[in-house]
Amino acid sequence: MRTSVICGLASVVNLFFVSGMNGQIKTIESFALRNVNGQIWSTECNKEVLGFIVVFTCNHCPFASLYPARLNALNEKYTPLKVPLIAINPMDSLLYEDEIFSLMQTKAQLENFNFPYLQDEKQLVSKQFGAEHTPQAFIIWLENGKYVIKYKGAIDDNGEDPAKATPFLANAVNDLLANRQLDEAATPSFGCRIFYRK
Amino acid sequence: MKKYISTVLFSLINYCVFAQYQQLVIPDTLSGTQFNLVLKDTFKQLKSGNQTITGGINNHSFWGPTLIMKKGDLVQINVINKLNDSTTLHWHGMHLPAVMDGGPHQVIPMGGTWKPYWKVTNQASTLWYHPHLHMMTMEHLSKGLGGLIIIRDSIESLLELPRTYGIDDIPLVLTSRRYSTTNQFIVQNVAYGDYMLTNGTPNAETDLPKQFVRLRILNAEIERGYNLGFSDNRTFYIIANDGGLLNAPVAVTRLKLMVGERVEILVNLTNDAVGTALDLKSYNSGQPFGYPGGEPNTTGAFGSLLNNTDFNVLHINVVKSTANPITSLPQKLENNVYFKSADAKVNRSVAITNGNPGGKPFDFDNVSFQLNTINKTVMLDDIEKWTVTNNNIFGHTFHIHDVEFKIVARNGVESAVGDFESGWKDVMYVPRNESVTFVTKFSDYADELHPFMYHCHFSNHEDGGMMGQFVVKGNRADVNRKSYISAKPTLFPNPVKDKLNIQFGNSDVKVYYITILDLAGRTKLMLPQPNLQHGLDVSQLQPGVYTVQITDELTKYIHLVKFIKQ
Ligand SMILES: [Cu+2]
């Protein structure tokens, strides 16, 4: 069974097929989550892409809060190049009241997010990615109808001072766009731990 | 040309001086009887490159404000947990009811507020507060969550002692950290940091006036001991141990300060020229085996760049004296009357066990800590003598909650107790192949349900199970009280705006605990032994439906009542 979605009328149903768990390649099937604009955002309805930049972030983590401007810039730069950015909030809003949907909407509005900010209420999408903390970035690349994880790690290496930072995430997108071997397919990252509901 | 060279040299020297030291952070103070502590995740620039994620309290990014309390005051604290994790906050050294103590049972969930209160009965002293969540203490403490408490009283206030905070009365919180490649604190499989942090400041320096200055020093490490002394080997004077002033100053040139211990010292800078400098150092090279931080390795779980070496704790620049300097050493301090060995009615022994590589982790009496096991029961007002024996492989520090104690013997010998540790203590060093005996009295606070802790203060050992718990059993009239909450309490007004009153069907009942949860089940308020005379302040709650859990003092039965917040 696959997720069947009629764009615009989609519901949040996600069924995953993860292959190559033991190898280097991990693929993720299409998913659909609720966006802060109230609509369902799904990979199925955004197929005219080469891949996605997926950033796990949240409302309450102070280190994640350093990045919105940089995420806006990344989205602005890479959307025309067919690698748009989406942000996913993996936090359990039963544990953290700060993470409830209405406060995600407030956050997106206050910080002028130019990208979808999706709530992973059941934490299933985040679990499939293996997201560990916020902020944490992934690049997934569309290959033969599946999304292959090409990069996992930090956005860059200086939260407070973008001018001093090495842009790991942007470098990885550039490498992929140029068909180059990725310099670093994974970089160490850190932030607020994601507690998965059992 | 020559001028050019000297200019380059000069700027190089300047650069080195600038890069070598950073200004010592002095934590802000909070005083009065109401204290708000907001615990949160934050970050701090500790190394060049990426910021380090730390734990902060209020506006501090590593180590929290110093709380100044007066003996005799009724203090009330709002501990607000805005961290990404549950935690607890323990008032180390404070004599208070077990349910206010902030041990592993008083878990504050994310978004929750815990409101303990107590009457300050400790004498003037330097205490501290820190997280105490079982198996998470090391991680939370490593983030920099904690702070000092200074208690003032009428005896200390009358003495000619330096007490201008941050000027001639300096708090010094000593610890060290190891960093990952991304500049994050490493909190797994690490007993020692590689880089010194004094009040969270790397390579700290400070100006001190040319007069007698007081340093209040806390060892807030994971395991490392400090063998403190000054770079010119000058004599300095110990005026207080963990629990307050000694009867008279004790002159030393070196002082071992182990994890959890505090000491107050006076340093005589009256003979130092303005513009000169000296260093407070830890002389940790050449210590006997079993001294924490004496191991020779520089890497690995028990290695460190600071192990078995002498290193700087604080660089001191002598500046001109203040308007009313202390220029002499008081000869007499307190009139403590200490317990003696013969005062004890009950004798107990605690053995340090396990901890061999590959075996069970360190514990006491071969029993690892269990949250639901009470290891010892103490009778209220009993004077007890505890002997902690370490026939084991390594040194430890032993800490007990609720009380200050008097060390009466080392290896059974009274005269083996050092002058430097002759005052009131709540932490003691138990070196390898030694036993240490203390006497204390368990007064005022009986609670047969809620335990106090005793544990090794190495947070990795504590987390690993080197901890036990005791309850103090009362013989008060209260225990025979027959009156209990016999019917569902009523709440009014309901809906409520700010003050919620609770009415019971019968009088003379006591409430042990109130917890308020929102509709989703999130704990919002935790109120140990709340005073309900003037109702409950619920003004901080968001509008919505809430459940109040009311635990009866006598039966510990929990009543559930709902209310609506407008
Ligand atoms: Cu220990």
Descriptive overview:
The complex is a heterodimer of chains A (198) and B (566). Chain A has a single domain, classed as Glutaredoxin (3-Layer(aba) Sandwich). In chain A, 19% of the residues lie in helices and 22% in strands. Chain A contains four helices and ten strands, in the order E-E-E-E-H-E-H-E-H-E-E-E-H-E. In chain A, helix 2 links the parallel strand 5 and strand 6 (117-119). Chain B has 566 residues and is mostly beta strands. Chain B folds into four domains: 24-154, Immunoglobulin-like (Sandwich), CATH 2.60.40; 159-329, Sandwich (Immunoglobulin-like), CATH 2.60.40; 342-473, Immunoglobulin-like (Sandwich), CATH 2.60.40.420; 489-565, Immunoglobulin-like. In chain B, a hairpin with a 5-residue loop joins strand 39 (544-552) and strand 40. Mean pLDDT of chain B is 94; it is low at 1-18. Chains A and B meet through strand 10 of A and strand 3 of B. Residues 362, 396, 456, 458, 461, 466 of chain B line the site of copper (II) ion.
Please write out the topology.
The complex is a heterodimer of chains A (198) and B (566).
Chain A: E1 27-28, E2 32-35, E3 40-42, E4 51-56, H1 68-78, E5 85-89, H2 101-110, E6 117-119, H3 124-129, E7 133-134, E8 136-143, E9 146-153, H4 168-177, E10 192-193
Parallel strand pairs in A: 4-5, 5-6
Antiparallel strand pairs in A: 1-9, 2-3, 2-6, 4-8, 7-10, 8-9
Chain B: H1 2-20, E1 22-23, E2 29-31, E3 34-44, E4 52-57, E5 66-70, E6 74-82, E7 90-92, E8 113-114, E9 117-119, E10 125-130, H2 137-142, E11 147-152, H3 154-158, E12 169-177, E13 195-198, E14 201-202, E15 204-209, E16 212-219, E17 226-230, E18 236-241, E19 244-252, E20 255-257, E21 262-268, E22 277-283, E23 310-319, E24 346-353, E25 363-364, E26 376-379, E27 383-390, E28 396-400, E29 406-410, E30 427-430, E31 434-441, E32 447-456, H4 459-463, E33 467-473, E34 490-492, E35 499-503, E36 511-518, E37 523-528, E38 536-537, E39 544-552, E40 558-565
Parallel strand pairs in B: 1-15, 2-5, 3-6, 5-11, 8-37, 12-16, 15-23, 24-27, 26-33
Antiparallel strand pairs in B: 3-4, 6-8, 6-9, 7-10, 10-11, 12-13, 13-14, 16-21, 17-20, 17-22, 18-19, 18-21, 22-23, 24-25, 27-31, 28-30, 28-32, 29-31, 32-33, 34-35, 35-38, 36-37, 36-39, 39-40
Bound molecules: copper (II) ion (CU).
